[in-house]
Write a structure and sequence with these properties.
The chain is of the alpha+beta class. The protein has two domains: about 200 residues, no CATH class; about 190 residues, no CATH class. Helices cover about 55% and strands about 20% of the residues. It has 15 helices and ten strands. Strands 2-3-8-5-7-6 form a six-stranded mixed barrel, surrounded by four helices. α2 packs antiparallel against α10 and α2 packs across α12. The longest helix has about 40 residues. The protein is elongated, with a radius of gyration of 33 Å. It starts with a helix and ends with a helix.
């Protein structure tokens, strides 16, 4: 072991005469540990929210969507077959997207009407798993059943078994003029995704019923695809655009919700910068600790210099001391943060029980529990940033120690 490291570690372990320096050192160490732990927990919770929201969005939105010109595909089966040849594509399902107006009693609400084939839709989306009442399989061709989002059903006051009127914007020419097409549907179920955008506006009907109402014949709006890797959606969409006919357009989920996910990513970066300042404040307390230590150890520094130690060796000794504070604080923070991040689902309910209130009330928030996703990349980044700040904080005091003049330091000894 090099003597610089040996002396630096011994100074770190030694019981200092100046208890104030020891207190500042412990405070710096605790501050670094607290900052690192807080940063890991906050980023893990944000990762958890991002993953939860992505899961809820993708339970309605397909990974990749294929559409034709004018939002119409006259023959969808060859397109689905060609798309299924891609090794990433697991399943395909046709759909119809249209606008409509739902009325029940005095309630009137605009809706996005989606025509689906229930057995195929269950393969590309998870709406069937989010049903609050009824089943998606209750949608049968010719039965004119409809499944409503929970907020949409609540807005018009409809319950399962009620009959609602669906008005299509396409007009029907009669001797009395153009009148809107209207059909009565029976509510066979409701779903709740947990995203107000979908729960308040989406209505599902059978594909063939939608074709009859909107006079599409055998045409559909497009084909929805489910992939084996949702993060490969952009690449798959690009490959399908090149492989399929020129009039078939491919879009993926990252483009349809790009603003939302970009906002979440920006928020995560801002939170990282803000919480890093906590670590920075604690790390730069090392500066004051080492400056006072250098002043207290001037005689020891002078003796080492007279024994032949070079200025560079003195600098290394105090870098070791400062770095040890940062390393120990960072390790404690990383371990504490990872353990707390893994057990957020247990710790938060205990805090709520102790304080007597709910942090995320079910009647206010769709996500009532704090999800957490501890990612190795975030933990490593936080640990390296903390160690780098601790090391930078040791440079100036160590440089001052290396410049101590032995004759001046020992003049009054």
């Amino acid at each position: 072991m090099r003597y610089e490291l040996l002396v630096g570690l011994r100074y770190t372990r030694a019981k200092r005469r100046n208890h104030f320096i020891s207190f500042i050192s412990l405070t710096s160490m605790a501050g670094i540990a607290l900052g690192v732990a807080a940063l890991i927990v906050v980023l893990s919770v944000m990762n958890g929210f991002q993953q939860e929201l992505r899961t809820r969005i993708l339970s309605v939105v397909s990974h990749v969507q294929l559409t034709g010109p004018g939002n119409r595909l006259d023959d969808w089966k060859p397109v689905a077959k060609a798309a299924s040849a891609n090794p990433h594509v697991r399943d395909a399902a046709p759909f119809i997207n249209a606008q409509g107006m739902l009325t029940y009693g005095q309630g009137v609400r605009g809706a996005v009407v989606r025509g689906v084939v229930p057995e195929l839709e269950d393969r590309v989306a998870d709406i069937g798993k989010q049903m609050r009442a009824g089943k998606l399989a209750s949608l049968v061709s010719g039965g004119f059943g409809i499944v409503l989002g929970s907020e949409l059903a609540r807005a018009i006051g409809a319950l399962p078994g009620d009959k609602v009127a669906l008005i299509a914007p396409q007009g029907q020419v009669t001797p009395a003029g153009v009148i809107p097409r209207l059909k009565q549907f029976t509510v066979v179920g409701t779903f709740e995704i947990g995203m107000y955008e979908y729960d308040s506006s989406l209505a599902l009907v059978h594909l063939e019923d939608a074709q009859r109402l909107y006079q599409l014949g055998g045409a559909v709006s497009g084909v929805r695809l489910k992939l084996d890797d949702l993060f490969a959606a952009r690449e798959v969409a690009r490959d399908l655009t090149a492989a399929l006919a020129p009039d078939v357009y491919a879009t993926d989920w990252t483009r349809s919700h790009v603003n939302f996910f970009r906002a979440v990513e920006i928020e995560k970066r801002v939170m990282f910068i803000i919480l890093t300042l906590i670590v920075a404040v604690a790390a730069f307390n090392i500066v004051s600790t080492l400056v006072m230590l250098v002043t207290d150890k001037q005689a020891d520094i002078a003796i080492l210099r007279t024994l032949g130690a070079s200025p560079g060796s003195i600098l290394q000794i105090f870098v070791v001391q400062g770095a040890m504070i940062g390393i120990i604080g960072t390790l404690i923070g990383v371990v504490s943060g990872v353990l707390l991040g893994w057990n957020v689902a247990t710790v938060v309910p205990a805090i709520e029980h102790l304080l007597g209130f709910k942090i995320l009330a079910k009647d206010v928030y769709y996500i009532s529990d704090l999800p957490s996703d501890v990612q190795l990349r975030d933990v490593m980044t936080i640990g390296l940033v903390s160690l780098a700040m601790s090391f930078v904080a040791t440079i100036y005091p160590s440089w001052r120690a290396a410049r101590v003049n032995p004759a001046e330091a020992l003049r009054y000894e």
